[in-house]
From TrEMBL:
<keyword id="KW-0223">Dioxygenase</keyword>
<dbReference type="InterPro" id="IPR014710">
    <property type="entry name" value="RmlC-like_jellyroll"/>
</dbReference>
<protein>
    <submittedName>
        <fullName>Quercetin dioxygenase-like cupin family protein</fullName>
    </submittedName>
</protein>
<dbReference type="InterPro" id="IPR011051">
    <property type="entry name" value="RmlC_Cupin_sf"/>
</dbReference>
<dbReference type="InterPro" id="IPR013096">
    <property type="entry name" value="Cupin_2"/>
</dbReference>
<keyword id="KW-0560">Oxidoreductase</keyword>
<dbReference type="InterPro" id="IPR047263">
    <property type="entry name" value="HNL-like_cupin"/>
</dbReference>
<dbReference type="Pfam" id="PF07883">
    <property type="entry name" value="Cupin_2"/>
</dbReference>
<dbReference type="GO" id="GO:0051213">
    <property type="term" value="F:dioxygenase activity"/>
</dbReference>
<feature type="domain" description="Cupin type-2">
    <location>
        <begin position="44"/>
        <end position="100"/>
    </location>
</feature>
Length: 137
């Protein structure tokens, strides 16, 4: 069964693995890598408190927030609030995480570039203490 958010333009998608995400996050693939495009594009829905683990991208990533409010943090930097209309350009190999805030869902389009066959390197989960601190800012 296809589940649509009442305000979203894309389906909610498939639940993402707890190996790489904390909480309930979902992916709808919008464009797969092919001979013309060396990137993948998807709509990612984060329910409140859901977030990625720390990770990097060998050739960078672009996030376009299309609904809700969330958080983005690079290692060693304070977390920042992100909201509908924000565009985040993440440089290659920068350790970071992103997801929903504690009380709001967030949906973003992720455009992720490839280097060879790889587009992401997954690291450890964001600690509850770090996530809670990010929500207080």
């Amino acid at each position: 069964m296809t589940t649509l958010h009442p305000t979203s333009i894309f389906t909610k998608g498939e639940k993402l693995s707890s190996d790489y995400f904390t909480g309930n996050a979902f992916l709808t693939s919008l464009l797969a890598r092919d001979k013309n495009n060396n990137f993948a594009m998807g709509s990612v829905t984060f329910e409140p408190k859901a977030r990625t683990h720390w990770h990097t991208h060998p050739k960078g990533q672009i996030l376009v927030v299309i609904e809700g409010e969330g958080l983005y943090q690079e290692k060693g930097q304070p977390a920042r609030s992100i909201k509908k209309g924000d565009v985040i350009s993440i440089p290659e190999k920068v350790e970071h995480w992103h997801g929903a805030s504690a009380y709001n869902k967030m949906i973003h389009i992720a455009i992720t570039n490839y280097e060879g066959e790889q587009n992401v390197v997954w690291l450890e989960p964001v600690s509850e203490a770090d996530y809670n601190a990010a929500n207080k800012k």
